[in-house]
Here is the input.
Amino acid sequence: MAEQQDERLPFRIRGSLQTLLALQLIEPDHPRLLPELEAKLAHASQFYRDAPLLLDLAAVRARPPIDLGRLVGDLRRLGLHPVGVQNPSPPWREAAEQAGLAVFGPGTQPPERRPRAPQARSAMVVDRPVRGGEQIVAREGDLVVLGPVGHGAEIAASGHVHVYAPLRGRAFAGIDGDSGAMIFCDRLEAELVSIAGVYLVAEEFEPAVSGARVHIRRRGEALVITPCGA
Amino acid sequence: MAKVIVVTSGKGGVGKTTSAAAISTGLAQRGHRTVVIDFDVGLRNLDLVMGVERRVVFDFVNVINDGIRLNQALIKDKRVDNLFILPTSQTRDKDALTREGVERVMEELRAEFDYIICDSPAGIEKGAQMALYFADEAIVVTNPEISSVRDSDRILGLLHSRSRRAELGLDPIRAHLLLTRYDLDRVQRGDMLKLEDVVDILAIPVLGVIPNDPMVLHCSNLGLPVILERKSRAGEAYRDAVARLLGEQVEMRFVKPERRGLLDWLVRRSA
Ligand SMILES: Nc1ncnc2c1ncn2[C@@H]1O[C@H](COP(=O)(O)OP(=O)(O)OP(=O)(O)O)[C@@H](O)[C@H]1O
Ligand SMILES: [Mg+2]
Here is the structure.
């Protein structure tokens, strides 16, 4: 029987589904690539750190490949872990194989590209304060927090982030790239807010919105903070 | 049912040991069998503040590692009935406490005492985590300044995630705020945070506000828990806090300026 056979094998093969972060290469040999990425990561949450990463080659497939082995080394030094590429042309595929990267299928596009249907999605509800040093991530859907989010705490969701109390830590909405995601909070005292990778730090908040009940949305490459009811 | 209460803070020097000594003494004065344990291995302040440092033979670490019986290490307080001190070692480090060893001591103490008060070391690392692991309740000692409040917030996170209660999925640790070294003048000048500000950030119930009081240092130099000093404002505030810990309703003192009217001045002059 198949099961008995499995028992005797020193391993088992199973399917597994994972959501991977993709780094889309646009100008792979731009001198600012690594410094900009590093700056971005400095403001990003820990959950980008040590996360397996796909290099998306869709935008560069027409040009000759670069030395991917070197890029992989550079990314590793930044704490990222490239595991493979997607959308390669044949020369890029060869470069990827030489660099020890797997070649992935095209994958589903991030939700950014699709108009998001206003259907109900599951929300994760946290019915207590989130303390400094804590990290709460709603990987699928919205995050609703009923208690205050302390300085040094991080909350994140692939959908919207709602905080029905003061928000003093860092909040990340749309962590899988959904730029339609929003952040809502009762009192904006956050250290940083970010939607789909675009962020603002406390220093950049207008005085009129600091400490106010606000909602935050993304418009193009900027974040717009609006007092509720305004 | 015995209750394990950790006195913790994250930030150092905020008044944990002072508070652990005062509150354990207060609980014993109210008739509850109480033991106070020093988890600050390597520093060993509690026995000094409790005035028993010259009676220490064996300690907490010896009980865990060296086959010493608990009764050999427990020191009975000479001033207050029902009060025992379990001192710690000054020569060992925090690794001398093992989870299993501490658990064994806790179980033994639970059978004999009503309250087990754990004086935590500062920080959020291993030593502090060991002190809070077995707690049922926590007294989060905080000074009215930003850095202390933030550290308290972090500790509250650890209480929620790294305790035995959290790991077993039991009711969470009940945390109380004890705001110490409260200096009303500096609060009013805006140099220090108000009680309300601290409560707004930490969002936990207030066990007490202990005024800044030079008698605290004076008493600890004498090895006298400040709660035993009748003439101390901090001592009074600790007595109120103990009453609240026992479920009594006591109005909060030392949070509003005292009336300094002419009459008050006359009374003071003649006192
Ligand atoms: N209410 C108070 N008024 C004035 N001084 C105080 C008060 N509470 C504590 N102190 C003083 O603050 C200092 C630190 O107190 P204590 O040793 O209790 O803090 P701790 O939190 O246990 O410190 P550590 O983190 O080093 O263990 C001591 O000198 C003590 O006398
Ligand atoms: Mg201490």
